[in-house]
Amino acid sequence: MHYLHKILVKVAPELDREEKIKEARSTAVSETECFYEYVWDWRETESAGRWAYEYPLNVILAEDNVDKFLDHLQRCKQMQLDTVSDDMKSIGEGDLFKMIQESKFEEIYNRGLFTPFGLDLWKFHRIINLLSGEYIPDSYFFNVDDRDSRITDELIEKIKKSPKEYALVLFDQHI
């Protein structure tokens, strides 16, 4: 499955536009290389890949339009929260949630992942990852400086105060 990931990087504010773009892309590539085979098994880094029609340049500088830049972040955050909400609804209607409420942990342990109920365990794991800021395919976002995928109010304020220091690099990633 292909995902459009937005990688937040800091750039030196004194650089010119072309240097910022080059630095942002290079930093995003090198700082996410360690997630090979965990978050992605193939990716396009020189363009936005399947999303190139929408983003002809895969680097967005906050200084160009900070409100639009922050909107990109808010959309990633909303996708994360929607996934958590959908997974919680699904789990809440299934056997796993009832078994957790009844403290049937040994039965959960014995059933394992390779049952229909295992899908709920996978969703539960994804919820925990998203809420804790773990960088996973479904997070759609990674903050290089904080080494996580959470988009907090504090992060938004930092970007508003120093838009010349931030860039988003868009990668088409597959897993």
Strand content: 15-25%
- On the 0 to 100 scale, the average pLDDT is 93
Weakly predicted, low-confidence segments: none
Count the beta strands: 5
- Identify the overall geometry: elongated
Question: What distance separates the N and C termini?
Answer: 6 Å
Q: Major sheet, described briefly? A: 5 strands, mixed
Total count of helical runs of at least 4 residues:
6
Output the radius of gyration: 18 Å
In N-to-C order, the SSE pattern is EHEEHHHHEHE
- Helix residue percentage: 40-55%
Number of domains: 1
The structure class reads alpha+beta
What is the structure about, briefly put?
This protein is α+β, with helices and mostly antiparallel strands and 175 residues long.
Keywords, separated by commas or semicolons:
175 residues; alpha+beta; 6 helices; five-stranded mixed β-sheet; 5 strands
